[in-house]
Amino acid sequence: MAKWCRLDENLTNDRFDCFSCRRNMCDKLLVFIYLILDCLCTPIMCLPPFIKIGAIFTEDQKNSSTEHAFVYAVDKINRDEHLLPHSKLVYDIQFVPTDDSFHASKKACFQVQHGVQAIFGPTDPILGAHIHSICDALDIPHIEARLDLDEESRELSVNLYPAQSLLNRAYQDVMSYLNWTKVAIIYEQDYGLMKLRELIRAPGRRDVELHLRQAEPATYRDVLKEIKSKEIHNLLIDTKPENMHLFLRGILQLQMNDFKFHYLFTSFDIETFDLEDFKYNFVNMTAFRIIDTEDVGVREIFKDMARFQPDGSSSPSNHSLLSLIKAEPALVYDSVHVFAVGLQTLEQSHPLKLENISCSEERPWDAGLSLVNYVNSVETKGLSGPIEFKEGKRTQFKLDLLKLKQHSLVKVGEWSPAGGVNISDNAAFFDSGTMNVTLIVITILDTPFVMMHYGKNYTGNARFYGFCVDLLNIIAQHVGFDYILDLVPDRKYGAQDPVTGEWNGIVYQLIKHKADLAVGSMTINYARESVIDFTKPFMNLGISILFKVPTEKESKLFTFMHPFGRETWALVSVALIVVSVSLMLVARVSPYECPKPRPPLLRPGVEPETQPRRPPRLWPPLSRRLTLSNCVWFIFGVLLRQGSGVSPQATSTRIVGGIWWFFTLIIISSYTANLAAFLTVERMITPIENAEGLAAQTDISYGTLDSGSTMTFFRDSMIETYKKMWRFMENKKPSVFVPTYEEGIKRVLEGNYAFLMESTMLDYAVQRNCNLTQIGGLLDSKGYGIATPMGSPWRDKISLAILELQEKGEIQILYDKWWKNSADTCTRTEKGKESKASALGVDNIGGVFVVLLCGLAVAVMVAIFEFYYNSKAISKSESRTMATPQQSLCAEMAGELCFALRCRGSRQRPALKRQCSKCVPTGSSTTYMPALPAGLEPPHLQPHDIRQRRNCSIGHGYDPRDEGPPIPPPPPPSQRIRLTAAGRD
């Protein structure tokens, strides 16, 4: 029995402890009886009465909470009547120096030689790998509770420590939730970089800027000082728990203990740290906890563990409850419990056969693999939460997310491999309602968003007023912070230099964390969003073109010509001529339009001289024949909807006339409709209609605000029109970029300049100056937002406040206040919205009167020419037949003019006072002739007499066409008419 309790008395510091050796003689006798029963028991029916297990811990864990938890777990299992009722666990604990793998291997072989069925520990990652190699060679189960950096599965190992790949996922999920984009990772141990390698190269976090620094207690301050100088406010800390107080002291010394900084610890024991100096400075400290201390059963186990003594007494020990509620003791306790559950499952299937195993023989244990498989299939709940394994690695667990608040660390969420991060208290990460925080807010003067009082009575935030200032006041009340408002030094919003990559303006100030917020008409775009954060947009807008109101189109006298273009008028004129000629030719060809004379009627047997005369076919008068002049007159009259006195008679000529009537119907109707549109709609002279028109010309300059989002939009645009506009603006000298909106509006009012600006500012300018107008629509769509540094905790709070204000309509009220309800709003008359049409003035239709006057003038000139031509012809004719002196042409024209202007007196034309002896008898002033149809003369007059009378009475020369058919016999006296020297009465 002495050999069973202490196997080797000569080994220094080596002991085999068992409960049977520490209890009284009765207990030893009971152990002896169990050994006898073990020999008599059949191997198929039960487990051995004593199952030997070994534990290897480092020397710094001697008399620690880890050793205490292991001993307590064995004792609790042996006292449990249901878990292993017929077997007892007998343990052996060996201590080895840290990082001494040789002694650790020697201790493991010693325990194997003395028949242990499983080895627990060590918790050191390096020593644990060496112990596992021995267990793997001998097929002895290796139950671990340590950090395992090897991603490959181990056949003979069961590790209760959560897989590092899953922990890295948990850290990554928290960083994503907190929107960390610039992180410093501080690790202490050499394998710390290997531990977090998956986090560093995570594919989903390529946008995160990571800074890796290895530190130890002597270099904590230097590393923290470097991180502070780089303005990194998010830190992932992976240091030894025993050195954590030194690290926290460095934070206090460098004054990195305010709300700007956020620390995420990889340790599960944040509750054991002294965080008293950080509670009231609103420092953001976050960590995971694997032990659910809020569970009543878990707390009872820890209380019982704190009272436990290995000798069996229940007096209080030197292990406080706080020292026991750590991840390592809890995982060690759970490892022993899982092994016991695995043994229980194995007992129900087949027995556990014991064999003598030695490291020197390297002969594997046949039952070891079966035992490991049963342990690996255990699903239970321990101090560290739900436990489940896959290929020896723990895949099922739950982590509580803790956050430091004013009073203590509180649970604000959970993480699990299946569900990821689940935040139950979103406000816990930045509880601004209990803070008295003053933020630095920068802005830029931009009417009406931010304006400034320059009087001496205005100081501090009272200097500023405007839309964004009112919005900031409301948001500050909702979120709960004070602020100091100031102007950005370079008075620019911020743009990135394409050569150096450096930012300026507001963006630079936020990147360098020289300000907490930026308020103003700052546009959200991709380039800015990649280096800073924006809240939800509080106003939507787009880029548009500001231009000076074009002058009204000057009314022209010939506006009535505008309904048709020059080509249409030319075609109408050509059509008039072509149709006139065509009508004349068709009339000449058609036998029904111009009939031929009838032949004489001959009777048989009668002399020709005595044949009766056939009545002659009457010819239409010359004024009604379709000659060229009459065809032109007919076509022109039809075109103007007037009669001409000439009408076609044949079918062919009537078809030509009908087609022309249809043509004129369409032309006149179209002209009338289009003329109404031209005369009633006032058109403006607009050199440009949209961005394409602006890009297509070079006479009008155009530009944007310097170093603004509009400039960036054109510079980075891939649309060909906008690329062309950017090349023009970039190469234009002098520069078309302006430093402020006011300067751009001023250049627009000076003329010949278009300003590309954001629609909100354009709307404000147009509302207050009637000489300005918007050209075209919006070129893009974007929004204004409040800018914050990357990862700022204020962003989400302000975004929620903006959404609430938008739903309540308060932002729209502010917009109406600063845009529409101002006293200096311009009042303009919208064209085309009157209730009735405008009257047409002389300037619209005055050209018609000009055409009328010109036509009258042409008619007078033609009449003068006709009179001149006819008088000249008569003068030549009379000069051959008359010897009397004639009047001069000017005298005759003067007489005709006096006759035309005379209202009373003689109605005889002065030009007909000439004597004609051949046509007027001497002493008689009247002559009677029959009243015949036009073109016929009295039959008793000879042809030469008729021609003379026509020449005298009408004033024409001889025309051969006047020779007509034979003259009929004279009519009776009743049909005669009296002729006077002035013509027919």
Please describe the topology of this protein.
Blueprint: H1 2-5, H2 19-22, H3 25-40, E1 50-58, H4 65-79, E2 88-96, H5 101-113, E3 119-120, H6 125-138, E4 142-144, E5 157-159, H7 164-177, E6 182-187, H8 192-195, H9 197-200, E7 209-214, H10 220-229, E8 234-238, H11 244-253, E9 262-265, E10 284-289, H12 296-307, H13 321-324, H14 327-347, H15 368-376, E11 380-382, E12 385-390, E13 393-396, E14 399-404, E15 409-416, E16 420-423, E17 438-443, E18 451-452, E19 464-465, H16 467-479, E20 482-487, H17 505-511, E21 517-518, H18 526-529, E22 533-534, E23 539-541, E24 543-548, H19 566-589, H20 628-639, H21 651-680, H22 691-696, E25 701-703, H23 709-716, H24 720-731, H25 741-750, E26 753-758, H26 759-768, E27 772-775, E28 782-784, E29 787-788, H27 794-808, H28 810-819, H29 842-881, H30 889-901, E30 926-930, H31 943-954, E31 976-980, E32 983-984
Parallel strand pairs: 1-2, 1-3, 3-4, 4-5, 6-7, 6-8, 8-9, 9-10, 17-20, 17-21, 25-26
Antiparallel strand pairs: 10-14, 11-12, 12-13, 14-15, 15-16, 18-19, 22-29, 23-28, 24-26, 24-27, 30-31, 31-32
Helix pairs in contact: 4-14, 5-6, 14-15, 19-20, 19-21, 23-24
Membrane topology: Multi-pass membrane protein
GO molecular function: ligand-gated monoatomic ion channel activity; signaling receptor activity
Main location: membrane
